[in-house]
Amino acid sequence: MNSEQEKKELLELRKKIFITGYKGGMAHLASCYSSLEMIYAMYLKGILKYDTSNPKWQDRDRFILSKGHAGLALYGVMEKAGLISEAIYKSYLTEGSLIGGEPCMRDSQWVEATTGSLGHGLSMGLGIAMALKMDNSPAKVYVMLGDGELEEGTVWEAIMTAPAFGVDNLIAILDCNNIQKMDFVEKTIGTPNWADKWKSFGWNVLETNGHDMEAFKDTILSENNSGRPRLVIANTIKGKGVSIMENNPNWHFKLPGRKELKVFKEELGITDEELV
Length: 276
What we know:
By secondary structure, this protein is an alpha/beta fold. It contains 10 helices and 5 strands.
């Protein structure tokens, strides 16, 4: 379970993500909110090993946000972790902007891969994991994907290939919110049965609640003695934290109108002054 302090901090992050995206004029809010607890846990609950004074420490763990449209969540957590400044975060889509809606290596030394064009993050992660193995590094590579993203063929090239190389340092995280850009995943491709599919290619598959940070952490850090790459299926709610957005496909890439804005302000604790 998330502590009361963590719940407060997560609410503040959701608020900051919304205000930043609203002022910028565009944002994938629902995708940010489904993945927020997991990204928070990666950077702030001791999952990722990194050195705040050395972004390119050789044995750091790597995190790749393959579902790059949730970049405002990643950058928001990075700011809270002290990896980027508040000024950089607030510059989002303003004149002279220092960050965009999707992670870019040009923006920060802490970004391990430029993403946003869906379907490529796992392949990049596989290459990095293989290189780390060759260097005898203890570092791990974590790649977060969306379930809609798994309809990209390039993802499956990496899924099929990874077990052959024994990359047990590669951990894929599936933000399984059951919604893609225009509709529910099930209505688009039928019942996916992700666990069975990944297992059939030789992956070690685990499942957890992506909004319960302790459960997520325990799952992702559990012993992996299989010698195989791992998939953690994290069940989430798209738009988590705002009632009209939760589990609603219409909010993939949308900002609220006047009436809808009232709900966001009430549920996230936002004042009129903060939106100016």
